[in-house]
Amino acid sequence: MNKSQGVSFPSTFGEFFRQKRISLGFTLRSFCERYGYDPGNISRLERGILPPTEDQDKLQALAKALGLKEESSEWVTFFDLAYISKGKIPSDILSKPRATEHLPLLFRTARGKKLSKKKLQALIKILRES
Predict the structure, then answer these.
(1) 25: which residues sit within 8 A by CB, 6+ positions away?
(2) Residue 9: in which H helix or E strand, if any?
(3) Alpha-carbon gap, residue 55 to 22, rounded angstroms
(4) In contact, 21 and 66? CB cutoff 8 Å
(5) What pTM, to 2 d.p., does this model score?
(6) What is the pLDDT of residues 25-77, one digit of tens each?
(7) Is the pLDDT reported for residue 3 higher than 70?
(8) Most buried of 2, 70, 75, 104 (most Cβ within 10 A)?
(9) Greatest pairwise CA separation for the chain in angstroms
(10) Structural domains of the chain in order of their starting residue, each with its CATH number
């Protein structure tokens, strides 16, 4: 789990899923009984042994079972973490041609290569406008 300015947030899909389930007051079994999921699969999902499905309808059903509101920050985080766990870039980013042109800058930054403040601000602006 990552901590930023005293606020903790999950760094994996499984951690996020487990935190949301527990925050709703569900045990693993009660959640699975309520929504018709297999407890073994949900347990493996939460522990990172089983990756989340790539099926958008199934992911949406899981998100709704966790009480996530469509387009909320938690909804977006849920799907971002699902993509990340598969080593993929979220589809809404890939659908923006101007944004994808500049992904190498983001990758270079993530690898610890210096990126000037000006270039970083330009990248942020492009991502927001795309």
Answers:
(1) none
(2) strand 7-9
(3) 24
(4) yes
(5) 0.71
(6) 999 999 999 999 999 999 999 999 999 998 999 999 999 999 999 989 999 99
(7) no
(8) 75
(9) 52
(10) 1-88 (1.10.260.40), 89-130 (no CATH)
